[in-house]
């Protein structure tokens, strides 16, 4: 579909023109897409300021030009829903057409070294210091090292899926763009809503954690810096101004420039890595092999229970995948950066967990401050301050990188018109999406001021795992279904195999959650999972990666589906409830706004008649 790129006459307003080019830049004078011929035909114009707030910048789609146009569009809602459920984007649309919405290019300034340290800074936060002691004491004992190894393997599977997509579609949207290409517009919207929910909950949760850890350095009460409002509901009655301040500072730094943020993160992460090396060396220096006995005090079940919890220590790498558009050589830098950082982090986590359990018997590990108390037991009380500084640094860099990644998610979502395209604009000087950053910052600051950690963590966990699972599904679809070469029978065979894999993964998870001890159910579920995955091999791949591909397809993506579904099943009922409530709110927005904006973008040539119909109706009403 070719969409004309013609300027409007000065005497005609955007609102009155039916042929609004939704794929053209909002400010074409800042775009390199204008040809010489087009330039010659245009009258001299003064480039519009970046700081603008007109209705046309927020809702340029024909469906929202006036009330009659919206009524005409709304009458076609069911047809448009069907179209968007079946519609899929393309690599070219995400990489070329939608980028025009931002008017200015993001700067390609990142190398594989930057990506490795961005991965390290994003993932290595407070989790390793707060979760390890709790799970070693209550669930796994010394075998906590195996829990970290299993979780690291699961995270690496997801990293592989992200890497293949990021190499072939190096765009700021990350998983949103990947899902839009392979699973369609509607699934991508559900993912987009959860991505924004994850961004807000993740940033607010980190800010609240920073506040608690900072307060614990000089007080036994982590809420000492918070303001209690008794009239507010429990979980929302402790106002946290420190969380708001630190979150605002982190986002302002990220907004100043990508390279500045990357350099700041690299310096802070190098300091943190030296502290981690110190912790590991001291731990093994004071290690006692007798502390490793018994190695499985809670049995194999304890290892898996702990793995489901410590998995959160590995989240954050998806933020780095969002930096693909600003990477100099995506084909080589992204695999080295993502896979390299996650491999390094997995080794570091396992060594830290082993050092802790060898330094102190698991029955004596403190649940809340494992490393600090462990150092006290060996006569190094001063070391607890080093541990606290390392944890605070980890949370700070996670907020820095999270703010960058979240803003780029939001930018691509806006480029697709799922939210107003005004948020897609990239600042000409900083090369960063300032409006998108401000949107996420504002909402995150409000949430962090009111919401407690337990409320935020349950929402964040479900959204993160749900998106990781969808990414594995999308990778299988990309490899095994190409519309031009895949017959209807092969598509049906593939879909049956895919549903068997997902269904067996859910079945195994339900059995585990129900605490079923027999092996028959697991054997049946495992057999179906193997049959579904093996069936895909019989169907055969339809696409070969151009540069870098996930190994062991379809087994590795299928295992990623199983692990992520299993981890979702380990969450409490409240997480499911909050997830479905949030998804319901998203669907209401999509029904009344999102479906019409995205339909107009995909079918621009057919919108002129709809707008003309709306004008005719308005004229008749006037008469």
UniProtKB/TrEMBL annotation:
InterPro entries associated with the record: AA/rel_permease1, CAT_C
Q: Which UniProt keywords apply?
A: Amino-acid transport, Membrane, Transmembrane, Transmembrane helix, Transport
- Listed GO CC annotations: plasma membrane
Entry membrane topology: Multi-pass membrane protein
Query: Which residues are listed as membrane-spanning?
Result: 109-132, 144-165, 186-215, 235-254, 266-284, 304-324, 336-362, 434-453, 459-482, 494-513, 519-540, 552-572, 578-599
Instruction: State one molecular function term (GO).
Output: amino acid transmembrane transporter activity
Q: Where in the cell is it found?
A: Membrane
Q: Which family does it belong to?
A: Belongs to the amino acid-polyamine-organocation (APC) superfamily. Cationic amino acid transporter (CAT) (TC 2.A.3.3) family.
Question: Heme: present as a keyword of the record?
Answer: no
Q: What is this protein called?
A: Cationic amino acid transporter C-terminal domain-containing protein
Q: Which Pfam families match?
A: AA_permease_2, AA_permease_C
Start and end of every Cationic amino acid transporter C-terminal domain? 548-597
Q: What is its main location?
A: membrane
């Amino acid at each position: 579909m070719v969409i004309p790129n013609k300027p409007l006459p000065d005497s005609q307003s955007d609102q009155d023109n039916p042929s609004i080019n939704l794929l053209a830049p909002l400010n074409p004078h800042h775009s390199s897409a204008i040809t010489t011929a087009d330039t010659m035909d245009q009258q001299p114009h003064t480039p519009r300021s970046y700081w603008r707030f007109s209705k046309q910048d927020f809702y340029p789609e024909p469906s929202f030009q006036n009330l009659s146009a919206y009524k005409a569009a709304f009458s076609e809602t069911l047809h448009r829903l069907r179209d968007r459920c079946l519609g899929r984007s393309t690599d070219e649309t995400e990489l070329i057409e939608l980028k025009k919405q931002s008017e200015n290019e993001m700067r390609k300034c990142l190398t594989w070294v930057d990506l490795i340290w961005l991965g390290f800074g994003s993932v290595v936060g407070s989790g390793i210091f707060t979760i390890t002691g709790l799970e070693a004491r209550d669930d796994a004992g010394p075998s906590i090292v195996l829990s970290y190894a299993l979780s690291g393997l699961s995270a690496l599977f997801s990293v592989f899926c992200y890497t293949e997509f990021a190499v072939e579609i190096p765009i700021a949207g990350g998983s949103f763009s990947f899902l839009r290409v392979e699973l369609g517009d509607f699934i991508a919207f559900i993912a987009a809503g959860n991505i924004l929910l994850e961004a807000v909950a993740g940033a607010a949760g980190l800010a609240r954690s920073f506040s608690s850890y900072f307060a614990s350095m000089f007080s036994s009460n982590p809420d000492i810096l918070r303001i209690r409002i008794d009239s507010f509901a429990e979980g929302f009655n402790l106002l946290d101004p420190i969380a708001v301040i630190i979150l605002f500072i982190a986002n302002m730094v990220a907004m100043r420039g990508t390279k500045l943020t990357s350099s700041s993160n690299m310096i802070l992460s190098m300091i943190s890595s030296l502290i981690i090396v110190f912790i590991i060396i001291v731990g093994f220096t004071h290690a006692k092999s007798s502390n490793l006995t018994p190695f499985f005090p809670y049995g194999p079940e304890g290892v898996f229970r702990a793995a489901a919890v410590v998995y959160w220590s590995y989240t954050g790498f998806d933020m780095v995948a969002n930096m693909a558009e600003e990477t100099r050589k995506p084909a080589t830098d992204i695999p080295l950066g993502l896979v390299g950082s996650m491999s390094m982090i997995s080794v570091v986590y396992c060594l830290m967990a082993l050092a802790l359990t060898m330094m102190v018997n698991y029955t004596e590990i403190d649940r809340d401050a494992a490393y600090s108390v462990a150092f006290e037991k060996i006569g190094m009380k001063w070391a607890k301050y080093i541990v606290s500084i390392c944890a605070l640094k980890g949370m700070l860099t996670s907020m820095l990188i999270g703010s960058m990644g979240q803003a780029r998610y939001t930018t691509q979502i806006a480029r697709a018109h799922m939210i107003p395209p005004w948020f897609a604009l990239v600042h000409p000087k900083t090369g960063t999406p300032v409006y998108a950053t401000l949107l996420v910052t504002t909402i995150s600051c409000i949430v962090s001021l009111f919401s407690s950690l337990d409320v935020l963590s349950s929402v964040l966990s479900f959204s993160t795992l749900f998106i990781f699972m969808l990414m594995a599904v999308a990778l299988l679809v990309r490899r095994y279904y190409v519309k031009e070469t895949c017959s209807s029978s092969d598509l049906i065979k593939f879909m049956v195999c895919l549903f068997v894999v997902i269904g067996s993964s859910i079945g195994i998870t339900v059995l585990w959650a129900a605490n079923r001890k027999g092996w028959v159910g697991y054997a049946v579920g495992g057999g179906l999972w193997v049959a579904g995955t093996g069936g895909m091999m019989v169907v055969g791949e339809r696409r070969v990666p151009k540069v870098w591909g996930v190994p062991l397809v379809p087994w590795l993506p299928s295992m990623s589906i199983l692990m992520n579904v299993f981890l979702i099943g380990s969450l409490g009922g409240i997480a499911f409830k909050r997830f479905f409530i949030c998804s319901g709110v998203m669907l209401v927005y999509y029904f009344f706004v999102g479906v019409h904006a995205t339909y107009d973008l995909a079918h621009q040539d057919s919108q002129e008649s709809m707008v003309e119909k709306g004008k005719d109706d308005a004229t008749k009403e006037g008469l």
